[in-house]
Amino acid sequence: MGLIEGHLDVGAPEGVPIWDIDPYATDVLENPIEFYREMRAKGPFVYIPRYAILACARYAQTKEVFSDHERFVSSRGVGLVDFKQTTPWRPPSIILEVDPPEHTRVRRIMAKTLSPKVMREQASLLQSIADQMVAEVVAMGEIDGVADLAERYPTTVFPRILGLKKSNGRHLLDYGAMVFDAVGPDNEIRRASLSKGEDVVPWIMKQCERDNLIEGGLGAGIYTYADSGDISEKEAGLLVRSLLSAGVDTTVTGIGSLLYCLAENPEQFELLKDNPKLARSAFEEVLRYTAPVHSFFRTSAGDTEVSGIKIQENTKILCMLGAANRDEDHWPNADKYDVTRDVQGHLGMGAGIHGCVGQNLARAEVSAVLTAILAQVDKIEFTGTAKWRPGNSIRALASLPIKLTKKEA
Ligand code: OVM
Predict the structure, then answer these.
(1) Which ligand 1 atom lies nearest to the CA of residue 182?
(2) How confident is the model at residue 164 (pLDDT cuts 50, 70, 90)?
(3) b/e map of 374-404 (b: 16 or more CB within 10 Å)?
(4) With 0-12 CB in 10 A as exposed, 13-18 as middle and 19+ as buried, what is 12?
């Protein structure tokens, strides 16, 4: 049995259609919605020979596979490469790429580091920077929503909350792209992102060191667990690395996609202005509708069965979170962005024990930005065509030309 893209080819299970498609082709990544529909229509699973993987796109199976950490493990990587067969591009994450019981101890520490209480302590800082930054873009009028707000806000607030002594927004963005593109195949996208590693990786690793973290920040907070002996000094550094891996590109994407949804659906923006209490569900609906992380893998740890399909041990399964979030059988009118929808159960932050541990911080950041927008902005209009940036696991905008009209006091 040979290796394909760093994992074993176990072949197509009985009853699963074979689909000769490249889910990582640029045109698919730029415009995935029709592709999602087609994949869901083919059945609970498809086998994709090009990468020798199973893939699921319907809500039920995607949720089942993605959240059952016993049958479908993360310790063999959440990308195409099976860490049991092939050495990963960097030392594995000790929270993402690990299973219980090791996962449990480390997850508890990260959950405490990123708890709702800690986030409430950061709320006024997050709000004052959001208020100021939104005032600046409103004064500009015509902006690129990606560069001028979606990238600028997290690369400003996140290093402050972490307590990085030195920051470099470009390096933070490039490292995020590396980490999220690395889970895909060895394609042009992955190679382009990883090619920046020579500059970016040593810089990132340096900022993870205790001496480069300001007292009182979240990063230094993680090192207090090394002081108490709960984790080693090295593990503390790797957990700071996890924050820097997963905390920037995701929130950049969330804010950009929020602006996109509001520009695309002016009637929803009006509804939101009249009912600011809908702000939270407006963002949850962005997560459902756009799925910042469009897909991650799991690996089957043994022979098993899902929805009557026999899945062999060692199978890489591509869980299409973005497609599950648009499944009409689960979400009535799935292709409508609707701020009044009951959006519970979406997979935009994953599900189960590996569900986004930074979700409180992500929501706090977006909530601050949205609060500032609702206070200061009357209208958001496209001034050109929004462009999507093809990513191996993140679906983000490359540019978003919009005009913001100031709300009269
Ligand atoms: C990490 C991490 C966590 C979530 C996502 C991610 C693939 C990385 O712990 O480094 O991106």
Answers:
(1) 7
(2) very high
(3) bebbebbeeeeebebbbbbbbbbbebbbbeb
(4) middle
> Domains of the chain: which residue ranges?
3-406
In the prediction, which pLDDT does 1 show? Answer: 64
Superfamily of domain 3-406: Cytochrome P450 (1.10.630.10)
Interval between CA 158 and ligand 1 midpoint (Å): 16
What gap in Å lies between CA 253 and CA 69, rounded to an integer? 26
- C-beta separation of 181 from 188 below 8 A: no
pTM: 0.98
Is any ligand 1 atom within 6 A of the Cβ of residue 250?
no
Q: Give nearest CA residue, ligand 1 atom 6.
A: 246
Ligand 1 in contact with 95 (CB < 6 A)?
yes
Q: Is the CB of 179 under 6 A from ligand 1?
A: yes
What distance in angstroms lies between residue 176's CA and the mean position of ligand 1's atoms?
Answer: 9
Q: What is the DSSP letter of 12?
A: P
- From ligand 1's centre to the CA of 241, what distance in Å? 9
The tens digit of pLDDT for each residue in 88-106 reads 999 999 999 999 999 999 9
Query: Which residues, 6+ apart, have CB-to-CB distance to 87 below 8 Å?
Result: none
Give pLDDT tens digits for 294-330.
999 999 999 999 999 999 999 999 999 999 999 999 9
In the chain, how long is the greatest CA-to-CA distance? Answer: 69
